[in-house]
Write a structure and sequence with these properties.
This protein is of the alpha/beta class. It has 15 helices and 5 strands. Helix 3 links the parallel strand 1 and strand 2. It is elongated and about 90 Å long.
Length: 373
Amino acid sequence: MSGFLPRLWALVRKETRQMLRERSSLAVGLLLPAALILLFGYGLSFDVSHAPVAVVLDEHSPTTQSLVAGLQGSAYLAPVQVRDMSAAVDLMRQGKVGGIVHVPVDFSRRMADGNAQVQLILNGVDANTARTLEGYVGGALATQLQTTFDRQGGSSAGGGVNVIQRMWFNEASTSTWYLVPGLIVLVMTLIGAFLTSLLVAREWERGTLEAVFVTPVRPTELVLAKLLPYLGIGAINLGICLLTARFLFEVPMRGSLLAIVISSLLYLAVSLLLGLFISAVTRNQFQASQVALLTSFMPALMLSGFVFDLRNMPVAVQVISQLLPATHFMGLIKSLFLTGDNWPLFLQKSAILLLYALLLFAGTRSKLRKRLV
């Protein structure tokens, strides 16, 4: 025991100094937990607040205006009054509203007779949010009607409103239709970033990249040579994902198959290039795998809209989420699967993904210039 404690103390000092020199490990150990608890604690929520809802009034009367006031008084809803159903449907297809409240032309008369009806159309792309929104709208209408009856000194009995609910884009009201397209995004992220994140780092560690530098190979050729084989593997996985989604889980594919394939391959290229860029920058397999996990898969899982509605997050987190390629592809592929072709959205998101691919290609190319340091 006389020599145990001095040896232990010497080893502890040595490991402590080595740990302090490894700044990346120190950052992972100290900064990452704090960043995760703050980001996810503030940013992630299953609650629905200020959900945008389109309101269509076929009848303009004090009774219908009172109904709209009840929706506006709810902290969970953000009603937007539009001129007709056509405008409301356009807003829903663009994802700008989560539901449509349609008040028919004979609402006041049927209200007096005690059999008034209001139509509620929900965007079923996110089945969980749609069901929550249904409860909020029903609760807001019931509260406003009870308040109106109380002011009139009467009872709500015999004067209620029947909410006729319809679910669009997800008639089965199943979360599978909502989750499977999102899982395709996660699969493309996983096989993309992780497959290529170790490629260049492995060659740096083994010293084989120096041998390539003495050949006439140019950085552009080197990047393409490492990208194309894995793009082929990713394309095979994409085909498996699409066949599984359509025939095993029976998720409808209402959009163009060509649009789905083009956007998916664009996102796959972005993921592969992100992995290559990480690998070229870190030059260490362990660090490359950790950085790939923190910058690709985890953000795609938490901040892309796969599980949590981005509109419920703080503005700062929403801004961060819009910087992620997965966020743009997530919204696009869900729209293509469940709502059909939306060519302005397709062109916008595809242009963003193409821009990411070009930037990452240029960044990786610059890191693979023929230099040893």
